[in-house]
Amino acid sequence: MSEFTEKIAAKFPDEILEGPEMESENAISVKSDKILAVLEYCRSDAGMKFEFLTDLTAVDFLEFDSPKRIAVIYILRNMKNMQNLIVRAFLSDDEEIDTASDIWHSAEWLEREVWDLFGVKFKGHPNLKRILMPDDYEGHPLRKDYPLKGRGERDSFKIIQRDRERY
Amino acid sequence: MGRVEKDLQGETLELSFGPQHPATHGTLQIVMELDGEVVLNVEPHIGFLHTGFEKLAEHMSYNQFVTVTDRMNYLSPLSNNIGFSLAAEKLFGIEIPMRGQYIRVLMAELSRIGDHLVAVGTAAMDLGAMTVFLYGFREREKLYDLFEWATGARLTTSYTRVGGLMADLPEDFPDAVLKWAEQFPKTIDEIEKMLSHNRIFQDRTYDIGVISKEDVLKYSLTGPVARASGINYDLRKDMPYSSYEDFEFEVPIGENGDAYDRYLVRMEEMRQSVGIVKQVLANLPDGEVNIDPESKLTLPGKDEVYTTIEGLIHHFEVTMENKGILPPVAEVYMGTESPNGELGFYIVSNGEREPYRVRIRPPSFINYTIFKKLMKGAMFSDVVSNLGSLNIIAGELDR
Fold first, then answer.
1. pLDDT over threshold 80, residue B242
2. Does A13 fall in a domain?
3. Mutation site for A-interface testing, chosen from B220, B244, B251, B364 by largest number of A Cβ within 10 Å
4. Mean pLDDT of chain B, nearest integer
5. Would you tell me how many other CB atoms lie within 10 Å of the CB of residue A163?
6. What was the ipTM of the complex prediction?
7. CA-based nearest distance B11→chain A, Å
């Protein structure tokens, strides 16, 4: 625990989760219900000031001993002392999480990417549709149970036949 | 009677720009709604170059993935190599010897110059100034000859390894770089002469695509785009890595945040990079570039592999699939200042040979999110000014 994660734990005692066991610096695991309040606290509290959303992504913790399967990862940065803070919000397959795109506009596309590749639904997102994969694609390829070589998408390409004799 | 009298007010035109268009410099599509020459709305579509790098990473060892990073920002592959290797080294908890770190700085700065030459050159070419592009490419060609000499490839360099470099520099290489660095600033002067006071270029970039300081934070912008808006933010200074703290350089900051300032920032960054390159060459330490091979992370020298049984066993231990040292169960985030902005790697490891998850923070992708806002209400001709000044690289955008 660092000084900052302790502050979050003191402010939101009911939200803290025991995350998967791994080494990390300045990271905290929380429930996904009140994620916006946690992020807003990290951003605007005078003692925190993590106002820069460096990155937003997700990890499928299927093969870890994890409280819930998917973690949405927010990497925040304090621009004054240049510290990074990693907030992981855990949710299971049937849960939704609030969008952070009202706080940071850059989250809009990043959340679209997470929806596209992990299938996490963001509540209140202005335009939640696929961004990297084709619109008619099925499945979410960065999930751990999605095979590397796909589920036969390549076999379903239409093969063009020559219907004319060569002269 | 007929067409002339028909009321055309209120009709808008939908125009698709790309995915195959020379000014997109890659494959991306922008669907625009136009009222005359005014852009009412744009909808960028991306993903045409999506190749699943992050999924691939979960099935490759750390050193194998270096080859994939070449293909991300294809204008500065060495920066990507260095960014990933630094993240992996942070995970393994190692630091490479000084000579290796200095060579990485040298390569990163040469890549930055190469990247900015193309960014400025293509942006100017889209606005009608063809010569700048050719002058830039002339210098970039010399740079690529140097890269080929040191790494064996022009584009697919794969120069770094976890724990060091593929090889030390060739013997005469530093002198050749110095010779190049001595004559290069002349090209910057030439480009500035052609563009900085060029009326057409000024008209098409002054006050075009203005990004405010608040928007830099709201849209998580980094790199030259953020600095042109007056944000003093450069990871080389603020979170130094690979011994950047040893070098003296200035971080150019813009005032207005328009396309012209982004051009100025890139030009000044090239001058600063030349300064760093000279400092590296003057202070290049002797010694090894890789960490001690006894750590069983890097390969032993070829002379050992070919002549001793211990060397051969060592070589196998590193390369065989079920051998070698394994990373701890951990997560790390490491950001580096690539030419386009912050290139970050977030790695989660479950202690096995392959990473559990690799997330690439692509600067192009995040810088591109503001494009929609910049274009709303702008003129049609500003599309290429904005696109060129943001320097969107499709390989990195889609990964």
1. yes
2. yes
3. B220
4. 87
5. 5
6. 0.89
7. 25
